[in-house]
Amino acid sequence: MRTILLVRFGEVFLKGQNRPFFMKKLIDRIKEVVGDLGGRVWMREGRIYVSDCADMDECARRVSRVFGVHSVSPAVEMDKADFAAVCEQAAAMMAPLTGTFKVLARRSDKRYPLDSPAIMREAGGVILERAPHLTVDVNHPDHVMTIEIRDHAYLSVERVMGVGGMPMGTNGKACLLLSGGIDSPVAGFMIAKRGVELCCVHYHSFPYTSERAKEKVLELARQLSEYSGKLRVLVVPFTEIQLEIHERCPENMTTLIMRRFMMRIAERLALSEGAQALVTGESIGQVASQTMEALACTDEVVSLPVFRPLIGMDKSEIVERAEAIGTFETSSLPYEDCCTIFTPKHPATHPRREQARAAEEALDAEALIAAAIEGTQAYEIG
Amino acid sequence: MIYLDNSATTRPFDGVIEAMASSMREGYYNPSAAYGPAIAAEREVRACRRAIAEQLGAREEEIVFTSGGTEGDNLAILGAAQALRSPGVFACSDIEHPAVAETIARVERMGHEVLRLPVDARGVLDLAACERLLSPRVALVSCMQVSNETGAVQPVEALSRLVKRIAPGALVHVDGVQGFLRVPMHMARMGVDLYTISAHKIHGPKGVGALAVRGGVRLAPQMTGGGQERGLRSGTLNGAGIVGLHAAVREMAARRAEVEALRGMKRRLLDDLSGLPGVTVNGPLPQEADSAPHILSLSFEGVRGEVLRNALEAEGVIVSTGSACASHKQKVSDALLAMGRTREQADGTIRVSLGLMNAPGEMDEAAARIASACEQLRRYRRR
Predict the structure, then answer these.
(1) pLDDT of residue A339
(2) What are the C-alpha distances in Å from A343 to residues A245, A337, B307?
(3) Nearest to B328 among A207, A247, A337 (CB)
(4) Is residue A168 part of a domain?
């Protein structure tokens, strides 16, 4: 008898001929996250198991954060031949709990002497006998004791929901514009969840933003990497460009032009990193640079697709997501937005594309972009 | 690198590091134990007690070792509050360090009354206002000896006389974290009952300090346990830290003339900046008597302190700001606002603080960097 982790996967099930590819990516990623816990990952009869983990709770927490995992359950694996012992073990696992329960049996070994209804009945009886404070409710139980009869018997009560999505690395690579605010890490998470590998670009305006602001962004990237695995953060020196824009462009257009430069630089870095799309945390109308007109103005300067997974979300919904992912607290650290001299008092909210083009005519865009890319520093995270 | 943030912390003297290393290597015994080597360790502790007492015009048995300034302030204020039988009035100045200000706020939540004493435009306690505000019900008045933000030396002796006249039973607590060994202190003569010191502000180690408690003052201990420090502060004594503190006290005292000479460096820095327009000194000017030798607070018109600090760091000059920036609302120094500075002025402030490791030549270089950074940053003002 030993405790193992039973891993259920979601959408990968829907795959046809290329399913082995998805499964391999999923298993590789699970192996990566439990490696230092001494966990062994194996597959049998279409189910993934993790065994030999020193710390089962930590193992469950980490595996539940692997994209492609639907849910996990710590389970007791035991010899199925001694059914009385199986029932006693089920009772021992239920005894500390309170409220209502039911037993759910699954028998994939059809030669097993008892069928599923018999298993449920017998085990339920023993549990009630040993833990008379529990009552049965087959419709809305507080706890479900699942007994699966396969090569062994597997007993589990607890179920930790996974993050879902697709295994990492099965859907290409994208480049996230990571600001240090609340939105962009959530946007990155949502795209990574679809199996998309990430790289991040961050714009650093020293001395207007501090070293700590940069540290904060690297910490956010580290938090994202707990889900996505290793990623690279490219930190682009952006002060020169901001100062030039501030000097030479109409004030109401400065933020928009800054966004256009960010997109252009991100696209070039994305291509050099082998990424096929850009990801931003924008949502319609959240700020002046995120109105439909402004988004059209920023889109026109790049040809890669731009994914904006938060586009229809309210701020409160985004905050909720950030809290669930675990990036909210770091995002809220007060090192951002220190460059107030660059924020126009009355930014244009309905800019036209021709207007944006005209506004940046005074700049030597090519030279500015080349210098920024030249000064970019890469940080390997995770 | 030119390190001008000595009010945040100082680099330990080499003698401090050596004394601590040998204490950890050879004198690691518990000073409260009974055998020979422990008695030698206890002797070291006692020597430190005596050295501090001598600097403060206090007696050896009046020194209680702590983990540093914050603990000393907490023990003084909470300890006095808890020793009272009925609620009293606790007063402190408007410019106290959070270790005092927050502790006074806590005392208020415990049911005592709290009084805040105003400062004038120079950041010096307004004694006339104190006289109006203080009443015979006052139980404790806490005032820092030197403002950590502006370097303004507070009139603690006059304050103490005033307090004892209006409320003879009241205690006077002085946070001496910035003042100790930089500005004279004689507790008996100045009528100070409680005095907090911290080792790492005088080129000693972090994690150790002391509270001087005048004989006859009753405090409730904040740490209970083995009853060390006459029951006022339980916990095994930080032997190596105390040895380090002692070495720091000795060297600071021996180099008193150099400490006073820091004032000259402060003036030099300010003189070097005289060509730069839009510079204001917060607090007394370096040549004034109530200006501590080592702290200079400067506001620069049209420049944000945080940005200037970042820019100076890139040039190898380390200073601090009076303000921390919150994401949407800017948090500025309460002390500067209490002196009547505008939010914009407070936001445009940096603090330069000197230590014995600084050299006069560094002032010229730092001033040049400050001036060029300001000129650079002012070119890009918000339109």
Answers:
(1) 56
(2) 11, 9, 15
(3) A337
(4) no
Last residue of a domain, one of A143, A163, A183: A163
Residue contacts between A and B (CB atoms, under 8 Å): 43
Residues A90 and A177 in one domain: no
Average pLDDT over residues B334-359: 93
Indicate which of B308, B310, B317, B375 best probes the interface with A, i.e. most A CBs within 10 Å of its own CB.
B310
pLDDT at A53 over 90: no
pLDDT in tens, A257-309: 999 999 999 999 999 999 999 999 999 988 888 999 999 999 999 999 999 99
Q: What is the pTM of this model?
A: 0.84
Give the per-residue pLDDT at B353: 97
Q: Which residue of B has its CA nearest to A243?
A: B380
Nearest to A334 among B304, B327, B382 (CB): B327
pLDDT, one tens digit per residue, over A76-113 is 999 999 999 999 999 999 999 999 999 999 998 889 99
Q: Which of A255, A338, A339, A342 to mutate to test the interface with B (most CBs of B within 10 A)?
A: A338
Are A261 and A369 a contacting pair, CB within 8 Å? yes
The domain in which residue B304 lies consists of 256-378
ipTM of this model? 0.76
Interface membership of B329 toward A (CB under 8 Å): no
Domain count, chain A: 2
The catalytically annotated residue of B48, B130, B143, B325 is B325
Question: Do B53 and B152 fall within a single domain?
Answer: yes
Q: What is the pLDDT of residue A35?
A: 87
Tens-digit pLDDT profile for residues B134-157:
999 999 999 999 999 999 999 999
DSSP secondary structure string, B25-72?
Answer: HH--S-TTSSSHHHHHHHHHHHHHHHHHHHHHT--GGGEEEESSHHHH
Token pair in block for residue A52: 């030999």
Q: Is beta strand B209-213 parallel, antiparallel or unpaired with respect to A306-307?
A: unpaired
Q: Is residue B3 part of a domain?
A: no
Interface check A346 vs B, CB under 8 A: no
Residue B6: inside a domain? no
In angstroms, the CA A374 to CA A368 distance is: 10
Half-sphere exposure of A184 (CA within 13 A, CB side): 23
Task: Indicate if B143 belongs to the active site.
Answer: no
| Residues B36 and B122 both lie in one domain | yes
**Among partner residues B310, B326, B381, which is closest to A207 by beta-carbon distance?**
B310
